[in-house]
């Protein structure tokens, strides 16, 4: 394949079809954790449905659909705004719009190979406006529709993590696809199931969070200690004490497909042929990933290593968040061990620790986590001792029908925090899980070997 190139032909601001009164939306500390954009690319293979449809037609329908969607999802058309008093970010809903770009390339989708594996070319399929020094001018939603030489399309989206978490982003993109209805015969019927979003952070705002923190964890496991934040601080201190080099290093991405059979073999490895107790696919793959990643990175045996994973607090709070809540509601649960113990410990024990960490996420934990984020925030350097997992298996992004049928794949770009691994639903096998990791390039082969050994 010749050197791939994408030519961007149009870039414009899309405003809400119906303008909403300008207002300030107060964000929670969960929203403020990561104001950077998350980029996701939807690939749609060539289809006979596209034969008589030009790029102009597809672009116009996407633009109209986005205008309608922004009228309902009004924060997506706003901008982040720091509070003059404390510098904390809030969101000004002021109808300033999203950015939609149009592009073409001679490349064929088939020439990209396995779409589940990251390709540097993917970076040309998203629109990244220049920050130009003023963070508050940066649009919260950006998108690019690209027509390929084969007649297929990609739609690359970028959404500020301060705006939505994963489930909310899924609902927003689903609403946009439905309202665009590019190749659907009955648009009205497709809109019936749309969930009305709730944008107010309400219960998650610090002023409304009861301060029931006692500083100690109860014997029952609930209490007010935000274990994940405590573990993270200890890792940062451990790294600083070791005088570890922080020079720029090259990181690569790789996706490993874990079939249903591989998952079953992992479970048997953990619990034997007779099982013992039910175990989720997430628990067993998370335990295996943690072990393999730590070994591949050659972490010193005396150092503490930590596994953190996102837990949705929507139904953990009392009362639970309303249906359609569009903000960030995820907190991190955490398990920490010396690297030597992680290597020697049984899968069963590690899985039990993961399950215990999940069970600790309750109303008090979320309150304490929020309070722990109330101090000054700083960007986190990559830490070999930290493994973070973001589970997207319940968000089947590939099923969002921007064009004709489901996407061939929905591929995230490199995450803002390089220690994050994604668990993705596989488009062709609902029983399989795609594990996307970002690691130092020279360790990818070793990780793949350790991860796949004994489960292939």
From TrEMBL:
Organism domain of life: Eukaryota
UniProt-listed Pfam families: Transferase
Coiled-coil ranges per UniProt: none
Family note: Belongs to the plant acyltransferase family.
Name this polypeptide is given: Brassinosteroid-related acyltransferase 1-like
Gene3D superfamilies assigned: Chloramphenicol acetyltransferase-like domain (3.30.559.10)
Gene Ontology terms, MF aspect: acyltransferase activity, transferring groups other than amino-acyl groups
């Amino acid at each position: 394949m010749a050197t791939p190139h994408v030519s961007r032909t149009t870039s414009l601001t899309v405003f809400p079809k119906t303008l909403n009164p300008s207002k300030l939306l107060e964000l929670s500390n969960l929203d403020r954790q990561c104001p950077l954009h998350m980029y996701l690319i939807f690939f749609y293979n060539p289809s006979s449905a596209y034969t008589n449809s030009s790029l102009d037609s597809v672009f116009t329908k996407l633009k109209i659909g986005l205008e309608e969607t922004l009228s309902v999802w009004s924060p997506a058309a706003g901008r982040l705004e720091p509070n003059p008093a404390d510098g904390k970010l809030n969101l000004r809903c002021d109808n300033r719009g999203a950015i939609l770009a149009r592009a073409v390339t001679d490349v064929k989708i088939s020439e990209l190979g396995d779409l589940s594996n990251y390709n540097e070319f993917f970076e040309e399929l998203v629109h990244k406006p220049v920050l130009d020094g003023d963070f508050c001018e940066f649009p919260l939603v950006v998108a690019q529709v690209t027509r390929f030489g084969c007649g297929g399309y990609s739609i690359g989206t970028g959404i500020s993590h301060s705006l939505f978490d994963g489930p909310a982003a899924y609902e927003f993109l689903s609403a946009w696809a439905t309202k665009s209805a590019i190749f659907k015969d009955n648009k009205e019927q497709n809109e019936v199931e749309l969930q009305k979003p709730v944008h107010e952070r309400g219960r998650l705002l610090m002023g409304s969070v009861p301060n029931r923190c006692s500083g100690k964890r109860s014997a029952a496991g609930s209490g007010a200690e935000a274990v994940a934040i405590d573990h993270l601080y200890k890792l940062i201190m451990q790294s600083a004490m070791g005088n570890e080099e922080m020079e720029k290093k090259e990181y690569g991405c790789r996706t490993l497909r874990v079939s249903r059979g591989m998952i079953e073999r992992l479970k048997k490895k953990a619990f034997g042929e007779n099982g013992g107790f039910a175990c989720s696919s997430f628990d067993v793959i998370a335990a295996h990933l943690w072990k393999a990643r730590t070994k591949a990175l050659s972490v010193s045996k005396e150092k503490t290593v930590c596994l953190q994973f996102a837990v949705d607090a929507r139904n953990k709070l009392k009362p639970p968040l309303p249906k359609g809540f569009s903000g960030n509601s995820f907190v991190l649960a955490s398990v920490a061990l010396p690297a030597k113990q992680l290597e020697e410990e049984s899968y069963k024990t590690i899985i039990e620790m993961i399950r215990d960490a999940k069970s600790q996420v309750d109303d008090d934990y979320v309150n304490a986590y929020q309070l722990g984020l109330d101090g000054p925030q700083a960007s986190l350097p990559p830490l070999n001792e930290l493994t973070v997992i973001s589970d997207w298996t319940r968000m089947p992004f590939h099923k969002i029908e921007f064009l004709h049928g489901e996407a061939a794949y929905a591929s995230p770009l490199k995450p803002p925090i390089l220690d994050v691994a994604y668990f993705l639903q596989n488009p062709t096998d609902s029983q399989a899980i795609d594990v996307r990791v970002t690691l130092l390039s020279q360790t990818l082969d070793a990780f793949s070997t350790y991860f796949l050994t004994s489960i292939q």
